[in-house]
Amino acid sequence: MVKEPQGKLGILTPGMGAVASTFIAGVLAVNKGISAPIGSLSQMGRIRLGKRTENRNPLIKDFIPLAKLDEVVFGGWDIFEDNMYESASNAQVLDQRLLDQLKPELEAIKPMKAVFDKKYVKKLDGTWVKQGKNKMELAEALMDDIRRFKEENNCERLVMVWCGSTEVYTEASDVHSSIGKLEEGLRNNDPAIPPSMIYCYAAVKMGIPYANGAPNLSCDVPAIVELAKQTKTPIAGKDFKTGQTLMKTILAPGLKVRSLGIRGWFSTNILGNRDGEVLDDPDSFKTKEVSKLGVLEQILHPDENPELYKNLYHKVRINYYPPHGDNKEGWDNIDIFGWLGYGMQIKIDFLCRDSILAAPIVLDLALFLDLAGRSDLYGIQEWLSFYFKSPQAAEGLKPQHDIFVQNEKLLNTLRHLMGEDLITHLGMDYYYDEQ
Predict the structure, then answer these.
(1) Cα–Cα distances in Å, from 321 out to 253, 267, 339?
(2) How far apart are CA 406 and CA 402, in angstroms?
(3) pLDDT reported for residue 435
(4) pTM of this prediction?
(5) CA angle, 77 as apex, 126 and 220 as ends, to 5°?
(6) What does the buried/exposed string (b/e) look like for 313-341 if buried means 16 or more CB atoms within 10 Å of the residue's CB?
(7) CATH topology of domain 8-240+356-417
(8) Average pLDDT over residues 347-372
(9) Per-residue pLDDT, 140
(10) What value does the mean pLDDT of the chain take?
(11) Mean pLDDT of 83-107
(12) Are domains 8-240+356-417 and 244-353 of this chain identical in fold?
């Protein structure tokens, strides 16, 4: 049973830089009728219901009870004190004339002091930072922030979407294995608990749905999964699927279904915003690299298709290039082979805008996680894999990376929640002789 959304929804973003400011300014612009929410499946996508002959294809937002955009309020944390007008102006993603039309609303949104440790993001250094004797005290300070924000903004419900930077590579360890060990680690300042996991713990402990937009471990450890089940909280991650990986999850399934082989896939990126600067550090890049490299293997299944993909050479590079700013450029060279082993090549040069692609993902995840919370769905929300480079999956299961399969799973989940028949594409559209 899906509960109707009542009152305001607060969307909290740890990290209020380019992605968050672009997202917030965008929603404000949509509410003022200045622009349209292009790229948002929840706002502009349609869903087929019943048989094709019924011609029922409503907008998703008209089919499922999502929070309305004019009932959303924004808050979050950052290591810089800039309000959202200043942050968006500094990011230089959106036209300044657009930002000036939204200036009063953006100036009113100011970040709370962040939980931050330079050891985990070596290329950044900010002064708007919380102090505490240990990580548990910092988590409790975040919970105080959340309670205060909810009260001051008269919110009925909250969601949290990580929009911060990529942290240094961390592998799951014993401290992440149970709630008790994680909480002990927070009290003892365990170095295996990065700031993103402190935010995640605070949210899930309070029953606030949480999505992780970076490749950090964050909610993708047994302790947080256990806590999410205990507090009946939806969680989803990790790493927004925006530029180059988006292209891979579109193209690789197409090559696979045509049984075309792949010998090599070389990918390189140039990016000049804060994310590019952070990823210039090898330890942070490794976190992103692991997220990006798993995509092809999970789509192509080389163990099941050795003749086509066993020897696939996959290389990923990211280079910091300040002149590009938020405009990310992804180059791909793909060596494929077809009938009788004859080789061919595909070249892609995707000149995209990182935050423009990420902003509608933040919106959709916030609205769908709020929906999950009102539908008594909790734990890992695999149906939201559509939005992530490295989707979180239940223990023992491999994540689904094929964007078309992900999309069908998302839409079928919405159909299920509203009591509609699932679409299997098994309609009898052919004729045969009965024997």
Answers:
(1) 31, 16, 40
(2) 6
(3) 45
(4) 0.92
(5) 105
(6) ebebebebbeebbbbbbbbbebbbeeeee
(7) Rossmann fold (3.40.50)
(8) 96
(9) 98
(10) 93
(11) 97
(12) no
